Amino acid sequence: MEKIVVPGEMLWEKEMRVPNTAVVDGKTYATVLGMVRDDRFIPLELVYKPKPGDNVVGIVTNVRHAGYSIELNLPYDGFISSKFTRVSFQQGDLIYGRVKFVDEVGNADITDAKRLPAGKIVDVPASKVPRIIGKKSSMLNVIRDGTGCSIFVGNNGYIWIGGKGNLPLALKTINFIVANAHKHGLTDKVAEYLNEHGGDVKVPPREEEKPPEEKSGLSEPAEETPEPAKEPETAEPSEPSEGEPVSEKEEKDAGSSEEEKQNPIMHSKSAGAAEESGEVKKKGIDIEEM
Hints:
Helix content: 25-40%
CATH superfamily of the largest domain: K Homology domain, type 1
Structural class: alpha+beta
Distance between the termini: 46 Å
Radius of gyration: 34 Å
Order of helices and strands: EEEEEEEEEEEEHHEEHHHHHH
Shape: flat
Strand content: 15-25%
């Protein structure tokens, strides 16, 4: 079940620690415009706050001896320390890096930065970035395959698109995702949109669309294995019931013990031979399993 909620609307009648929500009197409320899907809250509008590990796209705005100031589409600039980078940047360069540290004010230190070639920077709402990337980069790969463009997406809302490929189609596709970010099955719709506008995209089948024959075929061999038939053969001689006559068995056991006393060497050889045969069988099983 999906529905659009506005700030202040109750999401669940229980306490849920979810980003962009507030808990009052044991109930969870939305603090931003978003969409509820089962036990998930997907924000549709929010202000981006950097956190360590985020990937960002930025523009070099100032070059100093200590490092470089980076415009990140935030109230405060990011900073790349010259101590932690071997790349020399110039004012106006486009960079792609990772947030290393964020102070209490919101200033972000960036590491692992690299220079991006000449391209186009697109500004999208930060709340739409997860939909543009998709699960395991599925949506981003669809856009790359359909347009032939090299694309880097930053969590701060900046997207870099390379000059090669169908740049106009890439821009239209991103706008299409932003406008339809609240809809279910968006990856398939984007693939259809690309194919209708000159792209060639093949979306891999989902796991739920696999035919049921494969699952039933895996369970059949387990039913055909006659494992229970072996249990009574080994269990009966080892644990005889109390009502069975044991005179013959006692005689055999007594005879075997006398033979062991008379000829212990032969008995040890036979036991060793049995162990060797058992080892050969075990080795044969291991080889078949490999």
